[in-house]
């Protein structure tokens, strides 16, 4: 986390651990505000990689599952970075920088070093530079029914992006719209503090887990260290949210991803669910069902405490197990998952 931004947030009563805002003194209330009101959330738990240089586009086009030709002067997209076996090392969102010649990639902070290290192995003579910018720029989210209204009042000369995954320039940065009620500001620490202060007059401050809960509610996956190299993109619904192109050229794992799409039958998909657990539910936890007996039938991909209590999760589970039986957390007789609807349709498996 940027040191100046850390000082500013600490002055707002933020409880910060390992560079991540845990809460602002009232974690349970902040989850309720996230569900019912409008909230401000620091996003320092997410990493930011900048790609620059005249070969940045072609280099990334040959490495990622998404088609960078769709990432234009105001459009972002989801994407994935796979091993040659088609297994995801990370997923992300990517958009152009203000110059129109470079790109920003946002992903879980814990995945930044591994992704940079691996991508640099393939730079060779390409004129492209990869730089971890996680501590140089501030990112914070605004979410809720009044989010668009508050942003327009605080940025009167900015045209608020009209739809999901669109962005617009703001003073010293960019404004990215994730969906109808969720936005993200990417800007300098100096501008971030003044913008935060203006919006805060009519919004509640909330910790990082609240952003996690919002993304889980929207069915957005996040590969972490506990789940790296376990899933092909379709298993975490990356194809359903526009993160996989089946028309672009080659990239690592492309043959297996395409074979899964056209020749194979997908056996696992990502589902949204609730677990009424007082204990911590975490990415990488195993799931079980009666039809697989003592063999795990699925894995937690993402988990966050729910405003209703317990945990809301995204989990990759065998489709046959979901159709045939109940799903249980950690052991065959563990707490049962209550399946919840996803906000998007799944392609036929």
UniProtKB/TrEMBL annotation:
Q: Which PANTHER family match?
A: TRANSFERASE CAF17, MITOCHONDRIAL-RELATED (PTHR22602:SF0)
Query: By its UniProt entry, which SUPFAM superfamilies does this protein fall under?
Result: Aminomethyltransferase beta-barrel domain, Folate-binding domain
Q: What is this protein called?
A: GCVT N-terminal domain-containing protein
Q: Which GO terms describe its biological process?
A: iron-sulfur cluster assembly
**Residue span, GCVT N-terminal domain:** 23-238
* Positions of substrate binding: 184
| Annotated organism of origin | Nitrosomonas halophila
Q: Which InterPro entries match?
A: GcvT/YgfZ_C, GCVT_N, YgfZ/GCV_T_CS, YgfZ/GcvT
């Amino acid at each position: 986390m940027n040191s100046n931004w850390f000082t500013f947030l600490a002055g707002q009563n933020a409880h910060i651990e390992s560079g991540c805002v845990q809460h602002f003194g009232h974690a349970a209330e902040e989850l309720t505000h996230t569900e019912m009101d409008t909230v401000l959330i620091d996003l320092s738990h997410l990493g930011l990689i900048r790609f620059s240089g005249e070969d940045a586009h072609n280099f990334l086009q040959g490495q990622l599952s998404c088609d960078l030709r769709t990432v234009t002067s105001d459009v972002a997209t989801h994407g994935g970075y796979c091993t040659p076996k088609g297994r995801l090392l990370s997923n992300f969102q990517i958009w152009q920088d203000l110059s129109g010649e470079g790109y920003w990639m946002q992903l879980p902070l814990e995945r930044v070093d591994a992704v940079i290290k691996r991508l640099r192995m393939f730079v060779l003579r390409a004129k492209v530079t990869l730089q971890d910018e996680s501590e140089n720029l501030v990112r914070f989210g605004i979410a809720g029914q009044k989010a668009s209204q508050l942003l327009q009042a605080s940025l009167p000369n900015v045209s608020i992006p009209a739809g999901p995954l669109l962005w617009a320039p703001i003073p010293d940065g960019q404004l990215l719209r994730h969906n109808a009620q969720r936005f993200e500001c990417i800007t300098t620490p100096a501008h971030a503090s003044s913008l935060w202060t203006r919006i805060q007059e009519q919004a509640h401050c909330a910790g990082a887990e609240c952003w996690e809960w919002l993304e889980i509610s929207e069915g957005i996956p996040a590969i972490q260290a506990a789940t790296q190299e376990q899933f092909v993109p379709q298993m975490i619904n990356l194809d359903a949210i526009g993160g996989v192109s089946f028309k672009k050229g080659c990239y690592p794992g492309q043959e297996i991803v395409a074979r899964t799409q056209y020749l194979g039958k997908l056996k696992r998909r990502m589902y949204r669910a609730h677990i009424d657990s007082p204990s911590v539910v975490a990415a990488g936890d195993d799931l079980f069902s009666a039809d697989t007996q003592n063999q795990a039938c699925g894995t937690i991909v993402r988990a966050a405490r729910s405003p209703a209590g317990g945990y809301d999760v995204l989990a990759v589970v065998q489709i046959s197990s979901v159709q045939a039986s109940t799903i249980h957390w950690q052991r065959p007789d563990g707490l049962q998952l209550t399946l919840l609807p996803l906000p998007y349709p799944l392609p036929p498996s």
